[in-house]
Structures are given as C-alpha cells and as structure tokens.
Write a structure and sequence with these properties.
Elements: H1 3-17, H2 20-26, H3 31-40, H4 46-49, E1 52-61, E2 68-73, E3 78-82, E4 92-101, E5 113-125, E6 128-138, E7 141-145, E8 151-154, H5 159-162, E9 168-172, E10 181-186
Parallel strand pairs: 3-5
Antiparallel strand pairs: 1-2, 1-4, 2-3, 4-5, 5-6, 6-7, 6-9, 7-8, 9-10
C-alpha cells in the first residue's frame, strides 16, 4: 500500500472513530443507554448553543518563554488555546466548547486561530477511548460521575487513583477493568 492510500485509510478510520456511535461503543454504552443519557443531559444555555466546538489533540508548541497550548483539529487546523486554568491535558484528545476567533493571537507559525474554551471533555488517550468525570466512592466501590450526572461504576481502580476521590479524572479504556491510562485533570477541592 503506498503512502497516499495508507494516509487515506488512516484518515477514514480516524473519522469513523470520532463519531458519537463509536464513542458509545468504546465506552460500552448501548444505543438505549445513550438515548436515555441524552434525555437526562442538562440543556444548553443560549450562550452554549451559539458556541463553537473543536475536537483534537492538545499540544504545547514554541520554546520557552513563549510556549503556547494549541489544539490540532482532525482537519489539521491549529488553534491557540485560551483557558482560565488549563488542566494538564497535553497529548490528550479532547472535545472543547467555546468561541473561536479566526485571527490568531500568537506570533507562532502555523497557528491559524484562537479558541477560548469554556468546557472540555477528554475523548481519547493515544487512540484509546476515554471518559472523564469526578471520581466518587461509596464504601469500597468507585464510580465516575460524568458531566451529565450519570455514575458509571469503575473496577480495578489503581491505588494511586483511590486517593483522588472528588477530583476530576480521565480514564482510558473500558470502565469494567483497570485503565490503560488515567490522570487527574482537576484535584479534589
């Protein structure tokens, strides 16, 4: 297979993997559960309805002292990321909701726009589907409470993660086994 054909195949696979149905399959969510979750998810405010979104991998570019977090979208567009307090999500694939300004606020080459993110969700880590939410515990049982208020049971929670109850975390891989990768996005209050 030549390089162009391989690139086209990888692009098609990547686009298919980004679909909501693919995310639900990777997360082990049935179509019925997804429909139920969609009905119980909080409604968007007028501001959020008008907001833009982007999905891509977060990277740090530039050199000290002028480094900048950017999000590289699936379409190859690179936007400088503006957030009040950016969590440590370099290298993670995220969905961001906010406002895109077509003019770049940086002098870094290749950065075409600025994206002011109001909300985010981790979607994948190194190609492995991921979920994020607040780590909850009840007795010896742990759960991931997602933004829509759903509590998803977790199994095989690593000891280091058990000390992070109340923190916003991400968990890559199926929730019914140990995570392939995990991390803390926002420490517990």
């Amino acid at each position: 297979m030549n390089a162009a054909a391989r690139h086209a195949t990888l692009l098609a696979v990547a686009l298919a993997a980004c679909s909501p149905a693919a995310e639900q399959r990777r997360a082990g969510v049935s179509a019925d559960t997804a429909a139920s979750t969609a009905r119980t998810a909080p409604a968007f405010t007028d501001g959020e309805r008008a907001a833009d979104s982007v999905r891509g991998v977060v990277e740090r570019i530039g050199s000290d002292p002028t480094t900048q977090l950017v999000v590289r979208g699936a379409d190859g567009a690179v936007c400088a990321l503006r957030m009040t307090a950016a969590p440590p999500f370099e290298g993670l694939e995220v969905a961001l909701w906010g406002t895109r300004d077509r003019a770049s606020a940086t002098m870094l080459p290749g950065v075409a726009c600025t994206f002011a993110a109001a909300r985010y969700a981790v979607r994948a880590v190194d190609g492995i589907a991921a979920a994020d939410g607040v780590l909850r515990a009840q007795g010896n049982a742990y759960a991931l409470e997602t933004a829509d208020g759903m509590r998803r049971p977790l199994r095989d929670v690593p000891a280091a993660l058990r000390t992070q109850v109340g923190a916003r975390i991400y968990w890559a891989g199926p929730l019914d086994r140990a995570p392939a990768v995990y991390g803390v996005l926002v420490p517990a209050p």
